[in-house]
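Q: What would this complex look like in 3D?
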Amino acid sequence: MDKHAAALIIEEIGTLMELQGENPFRARAFYNAARALEQVEGEFDALVAEGKLEQVRGFGPATIAVARELAETGASSVHHELRSRTPDGLFDLLRIPGLGAKRVHLLHTQLGVESLDDLERAAEEDRIASLPGFGQRTQAKLLEGIAYLRSQMGRSRQPEAWAIAAALTEFLCARAGVVRVEIAGELRRRLETVRGVDVVAVVSEQAAPVITAFLEIPGARGGERVGASGARVRLGDGIEARLTCVPPDAFAAALLYATGSDAHVAAVVARAEAQGYRLNEFGLWRGEERVPVSDEATLYRVLGLDYIEPELREAGFEVALAAEGGLPTLVALTDLRGCFHCHTSYSDGRASLTEMAMAAKARGWRYLGIADHSRAAAYAGGLSVEQIERQHAEIDAWNAEHGHELWLFKGMETDILPDGRLDYADEEDVLGRFDYVVGSVHSSFSLSEAEMTQRIIRAMEDPHLTLLGHPTGRLLLGREGYPIDMDAVIDAAADAGVGIEINANPNRLDMDWRHWRRAKERGILTAINPDAHSTQGLGDVEYGIGVARKGWLTAADVINTWPLDEVRRHFAEGRRR
DNA sequence: GCCGTTTTCGGCCCGACTGTTTTCAGTCG
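A: Here is my prediction, written as structure tokens for the whole assembly.
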């Protein structure tokens, strides 16, 4: 069994225990074991077979028994038994802000609530407010949370969607007659969350056998045909996958249509008409004759347009700009030379400073900014002044020995306190010891929009602040960001010369791409920051690249594409601000 | 359930906030 899959099951045992109202510390033991498993080196089956788990901190007799059963049979009877007496709907309830396992358990046992629908009914019938620990305000907030979850239903975050897309591509490429498979739709446009995965397959002969195979892909359910050449199924956690099969000469038009957006396609169709062509999802036509276009780039070129990257295909006005050669050269993953927001085991990161540095070097990066939590973030092991000094000594030692290969910057993710001061700000010259400072909000989310905006603007007045971290605090599919006047924040950042990060964690993708064109016009710089808590987490920069590209950003707009010397100069100038 | 001992039970990341309470449980980051 795959280590990650095993860890997920062990973790779910913990969640199920909590939902069943068991001792929360017992549940935590399973969470700890799952986390320990993710960190330990080696293949899962070998770890179990060689008895190596016995030495792993966090594993004891009960968790080892589960691991052994998973390795031998691929399933866990403990997990199965808990799962069978826990309604699936309770997992959805956990996603509502303000509801944890205790309260879900109470709602379940006291009111028989087993799903979002049940909860909504109970709240509307005013049955929740009278439960111990609940009240009118909580009841109203739950209804808000349900409405938000409903609005996000059927959507998936990028990692899950890309995993499905990769598996689908591999599966389809192996079918006879399939010559090419491309991901399309919202995923190709790199939207922060997507409603399903769209795939276009070029088939050399009959589409029917490919569609039949698609409908019978392992794990598929609820499959149905769409017209003569398409089908949809549900895969994984219920994410919808849609397939369109086309002959080679229809590929370019079909991919354009399947990629969208509707507004973009409409603008391209209008452009085609203006140029004396007719465009539909089966091809490009002049009169009754098909115009041969082998791929999208050719299709755009025939219409007198520069190639329009999928990320730019949203509102439709990009088509007019493409006609004038007015599109930017978008930043790409290969442009990155480092990043400025990652955590180490000094605070809540899983990897040591050295491990993070080596991982950055292995990615071919030239520098890495370490930004652990500040003291106010006590839950995350925020650093005391003594720990900062120790970390800085370690960074100096690394740079002395390895700085010519990978330079480490001394950074900090400093809490923006409720009144807008930066953590450590009233202590003599603590913030001045860093090369740069990322300021983030981690507490007091329920301020009003005016207060929150003021809080952040005040933080930007502190000359130590280099970058604003995840500016809305949103968690995709989980929690809306706190209310904030982003236009005012952008203006204040521009005035203060503070950059705004693109937090590349796929749960955040914050600041949102929709704000970046305006921010760029105001001259605001960004850094694509993975907010990594592990060595693998550094790879999340890929999702941030998607945001930057959707925001029309070029490499020049993104500080972590700059050469080391330029970054140093930029930080030094910030210091003198 | 696991850990770590002042070695066999008591504590478990920790402080703030919120909405309940009328002194605190639950949630969150």
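A: To summarize the key features: The radius of gyration of chain A is 26 Å. DSSP finds 23 helices and 16 strands in chain A.
Q: Very helpful, thank you.
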